[in-house]
Every structure is written in C-alpha cells, then in structure tokens.
Specification:
The complex is a heterodimer of chains A (about 190) and B (about 290).
Chain A lengths: L6 E6 L2 E3 L2 E4 L5 E5 L2 E7 L1 H22 L5 H13 L8 E9 L4 E7 L5 E2 L11 H11 L6 H17 L8 E7 L2 E7 L5
Antiparallel strand pairs in A: 1-9, 2-3, 4-5, 5-6, 6-7, 7-8, 9-10
Helix pairs in contact in A: 3-4
Chain B lengths: L3 H12 L22 H9 L12 H14 L10 E6 L2 E6 L3 E3 L2 E4 L5 E5 L2 E4 L4 H22 L5 H14 L8 E8 L2 E8 L4 E3 L2 E4 L3 H11 L6 H18 L6 E8 L2 E9 H16 L1
Antiparallel strand pairs in B: 1-2, 1-10, 2-11, 3-4, 5-6, 6-7, 7-8, 8-9, 11-12
Helix pairs in contact in B: 6-7, 7-8
Classes of the chains: A alpha+beta (about 190), B alpha+beta (about 290).
C-alpha cells in the first residue's frame, strides 16, 4: 500500500501443503535495494528459484551500471523474466513496492504469472486471500498516509483478510519503506 | 378444548410424513421432488463426489459428468472440521472446533458442532451441517418418544442403531453425515460413530474431519482408560488445539463437553489460537 513518500508491504509467513501447515517462518518479501521491496505469492519452489534469479540479476546490474536499480526498472525486469517463460510459466504473483526518484514518490506494481503489469496508485494485493484483502484495503485506504498510520492500516487489513482465509495466517511480517530506511515488524496472528 | 394426545398427533403428522414408530424405524420418509426421476435430480443438485458405477461406462465420460455435476451443484457443503470423542473410566469426553469453510473461504468461526440428543447423550456434527443438525434433532425426538412409551432411558447402542437404519435408507442420496453418538447408560460410557454411508462403529476413541489425523496423533499418544477427569479433558482440548494449528480448515473456538452418570456438561469454550499461544508459553516456562 502507498502512503505519503512511503510504502508498506505485508504478508503472512505460512508454508503449507493443501490443508496441512508445514512451516511458520517462510519469508516471501525480499529487499532488492534500499528503495525497492519485492514480494511473491504462489508456488514455493518458484518463489525460492526467482529470489535467487533476481538476486543474481541485480548483482550483475549493480556491477555493470555502478548504481542501484530503480523500482520501475526492476518491475519491468520482473515482467520480462516472467514472460520469457510464457509457455511454461512460474506460478507466482509478484508485487513490487518502492520509492521512485529524487522526491521519493511511491511506486507500486503487480503482475500476473506471465508478466502483465499494473501500476495502481493505492494498493496491490495477491495470494489465496486476495479477494478478502481487496475488500478490506478498499475500505480502509486513504490517500497521503504518514508512515505510522500506513503501518496501522496495512496491519489491520492483513489481519482481517487472513482471518477469513483458511490457507493464510500462522504469523505475518510488515515492512514499511521510507526515505530513512525499512522498518520491519512481526504481527501476532491467529494460529488456527 | 384439546387433549394432549390429539395435539401430539397433529404435530407429528405435520412434521414427518408416515411416521410409524412401532412397525418400522425407517419408514419416515423425507419428501422427494414430484418429478420423473427424483433420485437423479437429488444427485445432480448436490454434486455428488461418489459416482454410481452402473451409470458410467467410459472413464472420460465419467470425469466429464463429475465435473459438470460439481459445477451445477447448488448445495455446496461446508466442509473442514475436527471433532473427537473418547470414553474412559469416569465418562465420555467430547471436544470440537467451530470453523466452517466453503472452499478456502472461512464462512464462520462460531458453528455449534455438538448437538444435544437428550440430557445424557450428545451427537457431533461433521460433514453437511444441515444434514447432521436435522438427523440429530430427529434422533432426539425418537429417543424422547421411546422413553415415554417404554418408561426407561434409551441405550446409546439403540439410539445409534436407530440413526444408522435411517441413514442407511438414504444411502447414495448425497447426504453427508459423520457423526459420533456419545453418552452414558447402564453399560457405562458409550461411543458410536455413525456415517451417511451406513457404517456404525463402536470404539473407545474416534476423531472425525479434515483435522482428524492431527488430532489422532495427540489423542493416541496420551490416551489411557484410567485417566483422571482433568487429564482427560486436557487431552481432548490439546488434541483439538493441535488439529486447529496444523489443519487450515479447522479453527475458531474449542468446546469441550463431559458426560457421566449425571448427564452432559459443557466444560469449556476457548479460542483456538489463544490456547495455542498459552501452551507455547507454558512449554517455554517448563523448559526454563
């Protein structure tokens, strides 16, 4: 979700196989650089593979360009990587959140599994509980939120949506990205 | 002015057609739609998982038909649950969760999965909520009539057999009932598992539902016949808590009941997630 010169990205940390919960600490939100956060939902093996793949590509970019990648360029990179597997796709739904440019304008991007990009101004959602999330975010979102308020709103949206989805929960993490850095907090969710 | 007898008779006739207790327990029929092939219609609106072998010849056709039926299913059951019951020296313990899911959507966190049949018998609800609720309430009515006519309390074995016969007559109609009839009678604590497939099983412990494998793990490890009352209640509660933690389709609140010679009593009603955090805290304290 986007606020005033800040973005927040939150997700649960459950790893499960159909109805059984296997792990409570699978992290799916990764830091690309100080300006970009990248989250994925979907098939766990593809999430792990793509995490390594993008880490490799970003390291190479840093060496060649001698600068940090901007969130918008990274989003396009993600879309291109996903489309390269158009006929045998990675089963993930990525979300990119970052602060763009000198004046730290918030940038949000969501793509589908083959790289169709969407740049909404307010919030992006993904995962098994995305319909609940969409509803709750739509209700509680307002423009130009300060970082503290943004953290509150994002946390409450996640908790509410996750409590209505049987396959989400069992721990969650919220990252708030401002020009001063990233604050990470873990929320106490329901463990049933 | 009404006499008691005529009021009772009127009520009976208006609720269940052709009710005749003395002759045959399974003649009380549910109304079927007044069309040419009621059985096929019943199957089509329910989206039956199991198929009748005589209708399907080729595998492809079989798969197609099953998919079609599932799509057209108007009655989508709320599945996903964990219920357990076990008998021990001093009585019967029943523990249930309270979540109902429709696919992955959590429809409710506050479903009553234990239905009282009479003051010393309880039935649990798993599978189709409407089916279980109706048939357990119906069983309650039959048991009450038995007691009035015979001037003695009905045994759990007889009550479960009555329900079993009724459900057997509705086999293949798409009912979904996975109920446990638990009680205390002259033979001591009793526990029967009744299925909509027509099975009736007697054992000292059962767990039913999507979370049952996880509950069995805890239950089998801690079960003994000579448990004390507190130990038994704690065992039931822990088993359901483990199941709500591991199984995504179980959760909500954990309700524990106890049945002894004085009848049934509701012991506790705790939030599943809070209970899990409490158990974690206790373990950490013990480790220190």
């Amino acid at each position: 979700m986007a606020g005033k010169n800040c973005v927040a990205i939150a997700g649960d940390t459950r790893f499960g196989v159909r109805n059984q919960t296997v792990a409570l600490d699978s992290n799916r939100i990764f830091k690309i650089n100080n300006r970009t956060l990248f989250g994925m939902t979907g098939l766990n093996t593809d999430i792990l593979t793509l995490r390594e793949s993008f880490k490799f590509q970003m390291n190479l970019y840093n060496l060649e360009e001698e600068r940090e990648i901007s969130p918008k360029t990274f989003a396009h990179n993600v879309a291109q990587t996903l489309y390269s597997k158009r006929f045998g796709p990675y089963f993930i739904t990525p979300i990119i959140a970052g602060l763009e440019g000198e004046d730290y304008t918030p940038f949000l991007c969501a793509t589908d599994l083959i790289g169709a990009m969407e740049f909404p101004k307010s919030f992006v959602v993904a995962g098994t509980g995305e319909e609940s999330l969409m509803g709750v975010c739509e209700t509680f979102y307002k423009e130009n939120m300060e970082p503290d308020e943004l953290f509150e709103v994002v946390s409450q949206c996640l908790l509410a949506a996750v409590d209505r989805d049987a396959l989400s929960g069992w721990g969650s993490v919220v990252h708030v990205l401002t020009k001063d850095g990233i604050t990470t907090k873990r929320l106490r969710t329901r463990k049933d | 002015m009404f006499t008691l007898g005529s009021v009772l008779d009127n009520e009976l006739k208006s609720t269940v057609e052709d009710f005749s207790f003395e002759t045959n327990f399974s003649t009380n029929q549910l109304m079927l739609p007044n069309i040419e092939k009621p059985f096929e219609f019943a199957q089509s609106i329910i989206g039956l998982e199991k198929d009748l072998q005589e209708n399907e010849n080729q595998l492809m056709f079989h798969q197609q038909k099953k998919e079609e039926r599932k799509e057209r299913a108007l009655i989508k059951g709320y599945k996903g649950t964990t219920t357990l019951a076990f008998i021990y020296e001093k009585g019967t313990v029943i523990a249930v969760d309270s979540r109902a899911t429709s696919g992955q959507y959590i429809a409710s966190q506050s479903v009553q999965k234990v239905v009282p049949i009479n003051s010393y018998m309880l039935g649990t609800l798993a599978g189709g909520a409407a089916d279980c609720q109706f048939f357990l309430a119906h069983l309650g009515r039959i048991c009450n009539l038995y007691e009035l006519r015979n001037n003695e309390t009905i045994s759990v074995a007889a009550a479960s057999k009555l329900l079993n016969n009724i459900l057997y007559s509705y086999r293949n109609y798409g009912l979904s009932v996975g109920s446990m009839i638990c009680g205390y009678d002259t033979r001591g604590p009793q526990l029967y598992y009744i299925d909509s497939d027509g099975s009736r099983l007697k054992n000292s412990l059962f767990s039913v539902g999507s979370g049952s494998p996880f509950a069995y793990g805890v239950l089998d490890a801690g079960y003994r016949w000579d448990l004390s009352k507190e130990e038994a209640l704690d065992l039931g509660r822990r088993a359901i808590c483990a199941a709500t933690f591991k199984d995504s389709y179980s959760g909500g609140t954990i309700k524990v009941y106890h049945i002894d010679e004085n009848g049934w009593v509701k012991i506790s009603d705790d939030d599943a997630s809070e209970l899990w955090y409490e158990y974690e805290k206790k373990e950490k304290k013990e480790k220190k």
